[in-house]
Amino acid sequence: MRSVYSDKKTEYFTDVCVIGAGHAGCEAALACARLGFETVIFTVSIESIALMPCNPNIGGTSKGHLVRELDALGGEMAKNIDKTFIQSRMLNASKGPAVHSLRAQADKSEYSRSMRKVLENQDNLYIRQGEVCEIFTEEGEDGSRPRITGVRTFNGTIYHCNAVILATGTYLSARCLCGEAITYTGPNGLQAANHLSSSLEKIGVKLRRFKTGTPARMDSRSLDYSKMQEQKGDVPVIPFSYSTDPESVQKEQISCYLTYTNEKTHEIIRANLDRSPIYAGIIEGTGPRYCPSIEDKVVKFADKERHQIFIEPEGLYTNEVYLSGMSSSLPEDVQIQMYRTLPGLENCHMVRNAYAIEYDCLCPGQLSLSLELKNISGLFCAGQFNGSSGYEEAAAQGLMAGINASMKLMGKDPVVLDRSEAYIGVLIDDLVTKDNNEPYRMMTSRAEYRLILRQDNADLRLRHIGHEVGLVSDEEYEKTCLKQQMIKDEMERLSSVNIGGKASVQEFLSQYDSAPLKTAFSLADLICRPELDYDILAELDPDRKPLPRDVIEQVEIELKYRGYIDRQNSQIEDFKKNERKKIPSDIDYDDVESLRLEARQKLKNFRPENIGQASRISGVSPSDIAVLLVYLGKKHN
User: Fold this and answer.
1) pLDDT tens profile 597-629
2) Is residue 182 domain-shared with residue 207, that is, in the same domain?
3) Which phi and psi angles does 206 have, rounded to 5°?
4) How many domains does one find in the chain?
């Protein structure tokens, strides 16, 4: 970085400043640096790079899809968890492929150290420990929106830059609550960022308060695992990254365990609700609906006799275990009472108490689909600052913010994934178009086209975009192209191999209670039968050549679900028609006659880029869309 020393202050000149080195910040900084831009990433503590302050895992239902997609685009999270996992499982394996999701338990310390090493050795990337307290902008030419010019740290150092990516996580004006005890810190007792919020509001960024929480950590030696159900990892292990050699991840795994709350647990919680900051009105922020505290579970699901609690190890070199499903903000004395009612935890020793954390984040309606703020040029936002929750959601946004900040500096159009292309597209579209009144969590049910957007085909869907952007190497892209060709060739071959009505074939099918053949069938037709699969049909297919397991998997899915896939592809075509109908950025919604007042207000606030996006805004009805289409048609003519 070029630097200037004058008037008792230091000034640096760089391309991009990334504020925050959590999962969003790491992906954003790596993307910018790898695309050739000099990047500085700021963190309140270098030890907190890629910190996992809550759950010790990556992936899970729908979140595994995000990690796979991030990897296909050239991100780092998947590679890092493949290096540092201690257990791996494919969730929902007994269900259809649309909801299969990979989940890996991480060694939390190793995950952070490994990601820090990647950042430290990345060309064009500089790590700086320090709190950013001010963002500088200047008015655009001819009255256009203000643009980013730099940032200032609390120590007074100024960094001039052309783009800033806000990835502040849960640190902005943060405070942690445990019963009556309130500490003004970030997660894990780290320093909060107490000065940036006022600077953001000064330049026109609207903020709100959200809340999240984390369970207690226990000393593993104080637990009785004989009273719990063991949860082992999968064999063989499936890697997260398409670049990881599958053989390199086959290793001994650490077990997790399952226990349950009971009526005694719930009695203790109900008797102490008045001491919970959530129910005492002390907490101002809104918490996550889909990851509630144990107090919320007991109150809102009063009919449930018990709740699942997973005991998850935090690493190979620590005795700390995480109590997944039991976050709380109750006082410490209540916490230890309720935890000791769980089978296997009767004599548990608490290492860290549970707590809730409040923080500032972005109000909805201010983001564009590129994750750039609509009213400030060059200011991009990612992660929990945007109102989401979860490491995976944060990392996906960080990667896209880093890509689009780089595209802006190159003078190129932003990379925008729509809802039919990726879970990342669903995530960002929801954050941009919806009034999310609680921390947003990704779920498979949010994706309308989830049969197309499977975790197993993320490389086939998105690798070409990562390659075009410049984050995926020629070698990796060629591997994907070869895989795609092998899938196509094998499907065509299976469709061309016809099976006659020979007695030997009928006898073979009877072994699997498969209906006899009445007409000529191809091997592809037989694979469509639920009781048959590619491996079973090997006996009827002596001429087949050996194929990689991931190619066989795609062939089977494409054939078995062909009718459903064709239907979704047809729906996607209809969806894209509305996405292609652009709305002028300077449209005056007050000129649109017959538009309802609520719809007018929502459209003014969110400023959708196309008709499809407008139709997904809460409060905008189909009749409003019809009125808008008529208006745009008249203007166009």
Assistant:
1) 999 999 998 999 999 999 999 889 999 999 999
2) yes
3) -90, 130
4) 3
